[in-house]
Amino acid sequence: xxxxxxxxxxxxxxxxxxxxxxxxxxxxxxxxxxxxxxxxxxxxxxxxxxxxxxxxxxxxxxxxxxxxxxxxxxxxxxxxxxxxxxxxxxxxxxxxxxxxxxxxxxxxxxxxxxxxxxxxxxxxxxxxxxxxxxxxxxxxxxxxxxxxxxxxxxxxxxxxxxxxxxxxxxxxxxxxxxxxxxxxxxxxxxxxxxxxxxxxxxxxxxxxxxxxxxxxxxxxxxxxxxxxxxxxxxxxxxxxxxxxxxxxxxxxxxxxxxxxxxxxxxxxxxxxxxxxxxxxxxxxxxxxxxxxxxxxxxxxxxxxxxxxxxxxxxxxxxxxxxxxxxxxxxxxxxxxxxxxxxxxxxxxxxxxxx
Length: 354
Hints:
Helices cover about 45% and strands about 20% of the residues. It is of the alpha/beta class. The longest helix is centred in the middle third of the chain and has 21 residues, at about 205-225.
């Protein structure tokens, strides 16, 4: 178990870049890693209000919080503001915020003048456990999630777990979805530890959260090292996202909540195909019930058509992440026809239970 103030360093070295994750650190730990001049900080207005007083010296560029800022147009606008502010190829971008800010700042850093140095101070559970780690940057294209993006490793990511104390309940729940995802795909022991610690997790206990985040991030880091550009094994990190992205856009619900529902749908698909015993599905359901994130959502009428535009779709099929058991995930190409048959089965089952 880690204690507050203990910095746990995790390195991600790939042929395409190196990144240092500072888990449990604080602002003083990144002072030696920042440039003396040329620092531009991208953040949102909420985070700026909370933490602006501890920002390092630099030019601050703010955006509105939320998914509406995660667009190519906003990245273009930021590039214009960087140019006006005198940013050049030696400048450094620090994304200071949650998942949207990390995605947007990373995307902007990867395209401004063909790429400038960047790093993150991650302020939400969602970004600490997932969005800030791994070097994927993305913005949305209309109603389609993360269609435009790049791969660019941040030089470092600071995760000060005490910052999680400022999160509203819905933001904590959203990040919890991604935390559970890492356990479900790779670590059965972590899964049951999350379950046993749920009360403290929902209370935002920084020590408990810090330990769980560290273990989840190590899972992601090990996967990213093997497959930095998501050509194969890294796809396992998309568990719950293919269904979840559709629900997120359609219902305008938080990312982690949508992914949680997506995980349940992917687990039901796994049981329906015979890849996973139904007992394991019930194990997952029992944990998610504890989180309070079980929204009763009707599947959109054209959910399969919407999924066909997902970036994981290829030639009439989708690379779906399915489960063999809690803690063991696999990637399988599933024909859209088969997914359509499952969706019909799922809908009929819901009708019968009303």
